[in-house]
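Notebook p. 47: complex prediction with flavin-adenine dinucleotide.
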Amino acid sequence: MATIGIWIETEGGKVKEANFGVITAARGGGGENTLLALLLDGSAEAAQEALAPYGVHKIVPLTAEGADLDQSPDARARALAAAVEKLSLNALLGLATTPGRDLFARLAAYLKLPLASDCISVDVARQTVCKSHFSGKTVATIRMKASVMLCALRPNAVEAQPAAVRPEIVPLTVTVQDPGRVRVLEVRKAGGGKIDLAEAGIIITGGRPIGSAENYKILEACAQALGGAVGASRAAVDAGFAPHSMQVGQTGKTVSPRLYIACGLSGSVQHFAGMKTSKVIVAINTDKDAPIFEKCDYGIIGDLFEVVPMLTEALTQK
Amino acid sequence: MKIYVCVKHVPDTAANIKTAGANGFDDAVCKFIANPYDEYAVEQAVRLMESQGGEVVVVSVGKEAAMATLRSAMAMGATRGILVTVESQFLDSEITSQALKAAIEKDGKPDLIFTGKVAVDTEGFQTAYRLAEAMSLPVVNEILKMELRDGKAVVEREIGGGSREVLEAGLPCVLGATKGLNEPRYPKFPDIMKAKKKEVKQMTLADLGLSAAAARIELVKLEKAPDRSGAKIIPGPSREAAQALVHILRNVEKVI
Ligand SMILES: Cc1cc2nc3c(=O)[nH]c(=O)nc-3n(C[C@H](O)[C@H](O)[C@H](O)COP(=O)(O)OP(=O)(O)OC[C@H]3O[C@@H](n4cnc5c(N)ncnc54)[C@H](O)[C@@H]3O)c2cc1C
Ligand SMILES: Nc1ncnc2c1ncn2[C@@H]1O[C@H](COP(=O)(O)O)[C@@H](O)[C@H]1O
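Predicted complex, structure tokens below:
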């Protein structure tokens, strides 16, 4: 029996889908834990609607007195810290997205509590987590000795399981005396509601042989048919075919979608560091001896410029 | 300016990791490098020193072997180094950040502190924040751009979905560097030779009044990540193979 908080990440006021897996992880098999969904932004009613199928007991929208949460990442962390104390949480879980990693690290430093970030699984009852060490080459099991367990989970690492409970809305007002030490001056939104690579459930990636930025259209068409996002290898980014925000791997994004399709990638260790925990990995490569075929689930030996359009076609015809 | 840069000595990302015992790895057989993100931090610091004067001090907490990483950072232009030696293979972020703080404060008054975004060995994502909190300084991680303006750092970071955020932090502050901030230089032979003669202060964790035993994170187990057994090759001409793949993804794997 534990009271577990889940920080719910929103985008444009809407609850991100990747939160559902975190709720499943917090439930931890049994149904004994009390789950509280903590909201720093977004509408509580919308969250109630979105989260009802996944089994949270309460929706707790936080109002902070004394600080503007939009302007200060520190104030957000402190508001959450106040909620952790007021609600006597045994654990706080959330998404290890870019904002989530930042929020949890600020929170852990502020509360002087241990933190496990970018975990692939969590066991709240045993206070253990599993996470990648050495770029996905090893898995570490870590025990946390603390009054409150703080854990940020890699998006999609835990598959969401439905468990319907109608959550009630219980607002909480906290006081944040010190707005913190950094200030947001400006937010530059990227155009057009693209699915963030790190949270996409399906990703199709093009490597060096893609040859130009223009050619990514072939992958975009397929991604659209799949409802997924498009990624790139470092070789393709360095060649100027794709922006760095599309790079998957060691020095790019870490992703864990349920389906990863690698088109024209050799299968470098550094690329795998960023996508190794994907559920199903498919490779399309002209070279039957390409190393990637040794590290994936399904392979098609063929030219991506021929296979990908046919894949798109096969996906669109029922 | 007096700039401190935290650099970690980590196994090469391409190195094979051989686990040893329940929770260790064989560090005698694998090649080590400076944490790749820390190279962006060193480069940024050296560029600032070149344009504004002052010095760049690189600080590492690690085994004696971490001296090699300090030397490589000094070959990139850092003025001198500090090495806090520890015996253990892993040291948790709380104690690491206390050690970094103590070593820096003992040495001087920083105008700026750089770290990398993440250490690629333990993938902690938190040392910069803990160091900043311990020293009551502002912190921004994963910065892609920075400039100094009226005693403040104005930095830019990505916040997901390609969106970016511009933030302001007063100096001194802690900034975590990521790929995109700059292109780290490749040291030339004379720089490498010069770096061998640069000063490195050395101390132990105990000299700073700290102990690894205080850790509240316990590494219980370190195992090789499960490998996939290899691809099931879907045969046939492209059209048939694509159709067969869609069938498998829909009906066998149920992922689309
Ligand atoms: C410190 C460090 C960090 C790094 N970080 C990253 C990272 O974050 N992400 C990353 O991706 N890499 C990273 N790398 C680079 C990595 O080592 C590889 O160089 C890179 O991933 C290779 O990209 P690629 O697979 O697209 O290209 P290649 O290695 O050139 O492979 C291309 C593959 O495509 C096949 N091919 C050719 N033509 C076709 C066609 N028409 N159709 C289908 N297949 C075709 C070829 O057989 C080959 O297997 C890093 C390297 C270092 C040293
Ligand atoms: N042992 C260490 N010695 C020096 N710097 C470190 C050490 N551990 C972490 N850091 C710094 O903190 C950053 C983030 O590390 P981490 O939070 O552990 O992922 C690294 O990129 C380094 O700049």
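Notes: The radius of gyration of chain A is 21 Å. Chain A has eight helices and 18 strands.
Next step: compare against the earlier run before touching the bench.
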